[in-house]
Amino acid sequence: MRVTIDSIGKSFPGVVALGGVSFEVHPGEIHALMGENGAGKSTLIKIVTGVYRPDRGRLLIDGAAANFASPRDAIAAGISAVHQERNLIPRFSVGENIMIENLPIRRGLVDYGEAHAQARRFLDMIDPSIDTRAEVRRLSVAQMQIVEIAKALSLEAGLLLLDEPTASITDHEAQALFAVLRRLRSEGKAIVFVSHKLEEVIALCDRVTVLRDGKVAAAGELIAAMSRSRIVSAMIGREERVAEIGPRTFARGTPALEVRGLATSLGHKDVSFTLRQGEILGLYGLVGSGRTELARALIGDARILAGEIRLKGAPISIADVSDAVRRHRIGYISEDRKNEGLILAHPIRANIAITIWPRLASRLGLLTRRLEERAATPLARKLDIRTPSLEQQVGKLSGGNQQKVSIAKWLAASVDVLIIDEPTVGIDIRTKTAIHELIAEITRAGVSVMLISSDMPEMITLADRILVMRDFALVGEIENERRYEPMSRRIMGFIHAGLEAGESQQEASHG
Ligand SMILES: Nc1ncnc2c1ncn2[C@@H]1O[C@H](COP(=O)(O)OP(=O)(O)OP(=O)(O)O)[C@@H](O)[C@H]1O
Ligand SMILES: [Mg+2]
Question: What domains sit in the chain, N to C, each tagged with a CATH number?
Answer without folding.
Answer: 3-236 (3.40.50.300), 255-329+450-511 (3.40.50.300)
